[in-house]
Protein 1
Amino acid sequence: FHQLSSQTAVLLNQNQPELTDEKARAVLTKYIQTKQQTPEVVPALASMTDHLGERVSSYSNLKDIPEAAISEIRNDMYLSTTTFKRLDKADALPKMDDSQKKLVKDYRSSLDSFLQYIPNWVKVAVALALGLGTMVGWKRIVVTVGERIGKHHMTYGQGMSAELVAMSTIAAADGLGMPVSTTHVLNSAVAGTMVANKSGLNFNTVKTILSAWVFTLPATICLSGGLYWLFLQFV
């Protein structure tokens, strides 16, 4: 990672003055917020890239990085990878040949792999929670989606249409990096088939679903915050 960082920083720097971490962080943050590129953006990205490599290489293993340092490093990596994406999209990166582009791509992949890392215990816990939740509430979910969104039961054709639309929408959102909820997409697709089939919508169920969507966010924020506070008392 250190070698990739150094080489990428050299490609970006092009004899520009080096900036401190604080200055580079401020420049990149402002660029991400305003989307207005200034002459300092690329030098700031180069400085941040070089310093990230130095900081990470000072530890023999990523597990050895202190918690406080991890937070700062991840934040700087996020600033870097987001700036790379913006500059690349605007075709504002310095001109490079194919080998140099590959080098930058490898560096960006390294950043993404660090940022998107999820511990195995988190994956297992989420899978268990989803599996247990579905085991307990599957019947209610199936009945609500298949029989209660519309005034009549959903037909096989409607089910296939809704699933195809949901699949296509989720795949497109994933490709574009847009956060979507599979539940929202599928329920909306089912409602669309009911309207198209002139089956009519059951507005009581629709209102209940919409209410659940509205209150889910604040409720989960409070629950997760409360659980985190509780865990901190024992850890």
Note: The chain has a mean pLDDT of 85.
Protein 2
Amino acid sequence: MTQGAARLAPLNPQCLPALASISISKFSFTILEGRINPMAPDYCRFKQHYCLCWSLLVEMLSGLGSLLRRYAVPMARVNGERLVELAQGGDPDWAVRVGGSNSVERLLSVMENREEVWDLVYRPGQRYRGEGGTEAAAVRIQSCWRRHWARNAYLHHRQRKWAAGTIAISWLMHAQLGRVRKSLQESRRTHLDNYRIRGQYLAANWKHIQASRRTIIHIPSLGRYLSLTQTHPIIR
């Protein structure tokens, strides 16, 4: 049996396949606690009657017993004819796929008390009461804990990433604002230098301008405050 049967989840009763009634077989036998008694009269009669195709039934019986032990099924009544029909269905990969859910349903279809066995197999937590249940429970607990730890680590990583993104955006905005301020300061300095050059030119040529018949001077073009223009020695 593979680990597929260990991960079976309980199904909704509405999703369960219809359990068709199985006629009582004259070659039926009983499996107790997932183990077949090779000396039981009903099992010996079944084995003797189907001795020619016994090689096909060995894997089926092994998988059936393993399934019943894994789910701690106390008693299962097997329909011999139905088991032989299933074995002769021509499935060479049965031993490989015996742990799948479809294989489990096919194995349960050979039970005469299928409803009782079905309820036990799909009962929540029943897997951990059977053979290897302690190990399966430990694996499930560890996997749940690893999932919980990984999710917390992921959420913490997302929070740190969000914080780092916020800090990076704030720094970029601060750097951009600094560049804008520097650009404005450079522009202001250029304008002041231009105004200063104009003022120096005006001071150097003031006598010539004063001697001219017509001279228009636009005082605000110096780029100075009114209080400075009123107290400027050249203008005054």
Note: The longest helix spans residues 133-204.
Protein 3
Amino acid sequence: MVNVDFFKDLLQVLKELIERGHFHEEEEEEEAGHVSVQGSEVLRQRLLCISTAFELLSGQGEALNIDLNDFVQHLYSLIPPLSLSPDIESSSQASTGRSIHLANSAELLFRALDKVFAPRTASTSHPPWRIAAFTKRLLTASTHFPPSTSVRTLEFVHALIVKYPQLDALLGSDDRAANGVYRPDVDDPQLANAFASSAWELQLLSTHWDEGVRTAALKITNFARS
């Protein structure tokens, strides 16, 4: 029998780890002789917590009706700093220099995205504002990602557009689908108002120096719903 309290306790621990920023007890003070935790490693550890939360509820916890919106919002907030991380495709190194055999940040990002947008139950659905906010933020991040991660991001966005017709509004050149302004600086997808913007990043990426990125961007630009 599944113990609901057990899963809730585990998720609470994961939330605390995400908010704390790192898994180590040492203070991040080089002057005191402690080894600092690099920013890219902190991002990777937070992604690992988010992925773990969804993994927990994909097994025995699948039957539980536990809200993971906090983890979805944490994932959304990590996309901009990840896009500026020079080590997003690098293997993890612990703060002590000892190798950790875990996925790099890019792999963990897509693992988490797949979990978020592959609902655990058939009745689970995402509100349009969440889908649009993630799509818009991922497109913006694609202009900064290394080519291989950018291509993978564009392929993920293309899959979202195929799955969710509401996203056609971001591709059109007509009036925006929402009033107001898009807020890329807000880390709450519900308040971002993504439908007030457009997928202008595709025009930029269609002239990218990497052929793979150009091809992936043009595939989205030329998409026609049948």
Note: The longest helix spans residues 39-56.
Protein 4
Amino acid sequence: ACLSSLHDSEHKHRKRVILKAFSREALQNYIPVMSEEIRAGVRGWLEGAPRVLVYPEMKRIMFGIAMRILLGFEPAQTNRGTQEQLIEAFEEMIRNLFSLPIDVPFSGLYRGLKARNVIHAKIEENIRKKMAKRDTSDQFKDVLQLLIEHSQKDDEPLRLQELKESATELLFGGHETTASTATSLVMFLGLHPEVVRKVRKELQEQGLLSSDAQENKHITKEDRKST
């Protein structure tokens, strides 16, 4: 079953499997992916309209990060078009999460299940791609890869539907709350320019700031207004 429906020892074991992907070493491996996704998002802000709606943009960025870090999607699988399709499906599923159990066309449950199937189809595509890779010993393992290996342990049958449900739970847990937190961060940074300068300095010292002068320029209220 998916993580939320497990109990006792199986829940603890599955949780330990997932926590391997959040060790200190694992988090350090995520930095390049996170930087790439964030830079792409900020670049889009600079090239786009003069006003940025931060929360929707943060949801898109965090969804892309979650798809790559938690589920191991390749960059080509998380282009903007695919992201928008999946985000729309994900939000439709969330909106109808607690609908009345009436599965008829145009009902909340019907729309929610239809949206879930879109997400599951994309996740299944990635699961099958991962299963086709025999040797992953030298590769960094995302959460989905760890869950796949857990399901295959001791020659247990691979439970595809359970993997898809667990992957969807990971997206649910790592998307909305993170986007909300990141939006608050942007708001407070906008209110405290002295903190922005300290953050910029620390990023430069750690080699995490882009070498692109356009991305590194100080964005004042006149340059870009965030809402």
Note: The radius of gyration is 20 Å.
